[in-house]
Amino acid sequence: MKIFVATLLSLIISTFNSYAQVEPMDGYMPSQGTQEYFNISENNYNKSIIYVFFNNEPCYTCAAAIEMIENLYNSEFSEDYNMFLINYQNDDENNFIETYQLSQPLEVVLVRVDDGASFGYKKVENLQNMTSDPVSFNDYLSNQITDYLSAEY
After folding, report:
1. Which residues of 49-86 are buried (b: 16+ CB within 10 A; e: fewer)?
2. Global model pTM greater than 0.85
3. Which tens digit of pLDDT belongs to each residue from 109-145?
4. Starting from the edge strand earliest in sequence, which strands make up the sheet with 49-54, in order?
5. Which CATH superfamily is domain 2-149 in?
6. Three-state SS annotation for the chain
């Protein structure tokens, strides 16, 4: 049992350590509003956002899912979109819970941005239940991201 707990903790810690590699270094913090996101860099005017929201609920496969999401982002989407990993458990300031109707231990929210305006969002849920098949996981999430964020409006 001690080995299981130690392994789980190391997975969670490695997930948080890898977060620093994913967050863009352009000065924007998700606690700022969308307008601040656009003001930080002119590149953000056409750069959609992938939010990875998690909470403090026990979730055996969430750490693995977050790692898979980060790997997919780094290999396929880091040039086209920005990604932020956010613990929404104690979100009193940003209203992420109300804005995106968050309730699951892990949710990905895709926010389409074009010409300095956001055009709605799409939630991708239950990714933590798909970690047993990494190929299907990557295909599913990649298709969700591409279909929604690359769509012409």
Report:
1. bbbbbbbeeebebbbbbbebbbebbeeebbeebbbbbb
2. no
3. 999 888 777 778 999 999 999 999 999 999 999 999 9
4. 82-87, 49-54, 106-114, 117-125
5. Glutaredoxin (3.40.30.10)
6. CHHHHHHHHHHHHHHHHHHHHHCCCCCCCCCCCHHHHHHHCHHHHHCCEEEEEECCCCCCCHHHHHHHHHHHHHHHHCCCCEEEEEECCCCCCCCHHHHHCCCCCEEEEEEEEECCEEEEEEEEECHHHCCCCHHHHHHHHHHHHHHHHCCCC
